[in-house]
Specification:
By secondary structure, this protein is α+β, with helices and mostly antiparallel strands. About 50% of the residues lie in helices and about 10% in strands. It contains 16 helices and ten strands. Its cofactor is heme.
């Protein structure tokens, strides 16, 4: 063997030893007495790649080896992952016992330190109360529902004869309807410019917090700066004018209720979070509902029957009323089944503010706890025949409020936008299914860490005509 070959093998061996020691060092660094079993992966990166790319398979393989509670390292933090339904419920119901929201650093820095998903205690109650006063049932009935109606009528006009990417369309819908509700009087170019950069915020929140130009995190931070600057200009413009506006921003700015009053920083963070959560969850749920309605014709038929029954008692020009919305019982069931079946929300993150005992293990202060709810959505005890798309299951009394239904969170963290999101999707489906029929192309779908169609989800749209049998 020549000297260069010897040097090559020595270097290769040295690198192998170095990386093995590096990985071992990360295991030692996070070793604690009494913590759940598991592995931590590489320094800094941990097991983020497996967590994001392998998704459910990563979770199942870990559970098979370590049980329902195990440790890992993902998205920049040591994390305990819980796949135990009873323990998950306990974690989400006991924020006061050292289990506060603990979303990744990337999400906190991009959405803002005052966003409702991040704050806890008295500040969370104040912000939540403020938001519910503007997007709760009374506000939806009196102010928001008519605006959603008018938007959907215009947005869904003239689709017949076209092939559209329903993923892109539902993203536009979710973003622009939210923008209209927040800042109703700004011109269309303002909304278009705002959306053009907003994808960076979404991708930035699901990334390692490495602040280097070119990374998703860096782009997300830069986009946040632009969004904050734009919103500050809007706030300043409105304060310099005596005009009032029938939108959420105006109500946030002019609230006289000291109990729920927010400062400018808090207002901006809630608007960014409102847009973010609606953009991601509402758009994806709507897209998947359209897909499942196509895949399950009998479900689509029932949805159409429900909406045509509502339509028969109204004039063509009438908007959907609050009573009409409350009658969309089966449509609501479709929304819930879509959330469950597609696993739009995979889990919830908490952070320990002190050492916390869970199932006999001690979770160190400052660690994340990932309440992984995906498997609960396929629990055959809670959801018989869980691999069947069956909206009718949600018509059973009590299922929506069942202890293990965490589609919208749980306890004091139940999503404040739950009802508004349901209204937006319901009104979209109401106009879509009564105006159009559609055929879908076979497009690839990813289910983890986000539900998305990498190449779009294309459908061919045609006008829907009621046949004699249906009429």
């Amino acid at each position: 063997m020549s000297i260069p070959e010897i040097v090559y093998y020595v270097l290769a061996l040295a690198l192998c030893v170095f990386f093995a020691l590096l990985k071992k060092w990360n295991e030692v660094r996070y070793s604690r007495k009494g913590i759940p079993p598991g592995t931590m992966g590489w320094p800094i990166f941990g097991e983020t790649a497996g967590f994001l790319k392998q998704g459910p398979d990563f979770m199942k393989s870990k559970r098979a080896r370590y049980g329902n509670l195990f440790k890992s390292h993902a998205l920049g933090s040591p994390v305990i992952i819980s796949m135990d339904p009873e323990l998950n419920r306990y974690i989400l119901k006991n924020e006061a016992k050292g289990l506060v929201p603990g979303y990744p650093v990337s999400m906190r820095n991009i959405l803002g330190n005052s966003n409702i998903a991040e704050v806890h205690g008295a500040l969370h109650k104040r912000i939540r109360g403020s938001i519910l006063s503007f997007i709760g049932p009374a506000a939806i009935r009196d102010h928001l529902l008519p605006e959603v109606n008018k938007f959907m009528r215009s947005f869904l006009d003239n689709w017949a004869g076209k092939t559209v990417d329903i993923q892109d369309k539902t993203k536009q819908m979710a973003f622009f309807v939210s923008m209209k509700l927040i800042v109703e009087n700004e011109p269309s170019p303002f909304h278009e410019a705002f959306k053009a950069t907003f994808d960076n915020i979404v991708s930035g929140t699901f990334s390692l917090p490495i602040k280097i130009p070119g990374t998703n995190y860096f782009r997300g931070l830069q986009t946040r700066k632009k969004v904050v600057a734009t919103l500050k200009e809007v706030l300043a413009k409105r304060r310099s004018s005596s005009a009032t506006h029938a939108d959420i921003l105006d109500q946030l700015m002019r609230s006289e209720d000291f109990k729920y009053k927010l400062n400018d920083e808090e207002i901006i963070d809630q608007i960014i979070t409102f847009l973010y959560s609606g953009y991601e969850t509402v758009s994806t749920t709507t897209m998947m509902a359209v897909k499942y309605l196509h895949d399950y014709p009998r479900v689509l038929e029932k949805v159409r029957e429900e909406h045509f029954a509502i339509q028969q008692r109204k004039r063509p020009e009438d908007l959907v009323s609050w009573d009409d919305y409350k009658d969309m019982v089966y449509t609501r069931a479709v929304i819930f089944e879509t959330l469950r079946f597609a696993n739009i929300v995979n889990g919830v993150l908490r952070k320990t503010t002190e050492d916390v005992e869970l199932n006999g293990f001690t979770i160190p202060q400052g660690w994340r706890v990932y309440v992984y709810t995906r498997e609960t959505n396929y629990d055959p005890i809670l959801y018989p025949e869980p691999l069947n798309f069956n909206p009718s299951r949600w018509l059973e009394k009590g299922l929506e409020s069942h202890n293990h239904n965490m589609l919208f969170g749980a306890g004091g963290r139940l999503c404040p936008g739950k009802e508004l999101g349901s209204v937006i999707i319901s009104i979209f489906l109401r106009y879509f299914v009564t105006k159009y029929r559609w055929e879908a192309d076979g497009n690839e779908l990813l289910k983890f860490p986000r539900v998305e169609a990498p190449n779009g989800l294309h459908i061919r749209v045609a006008e829907y005509t009621i046949t004699r049998k249906e009429s």
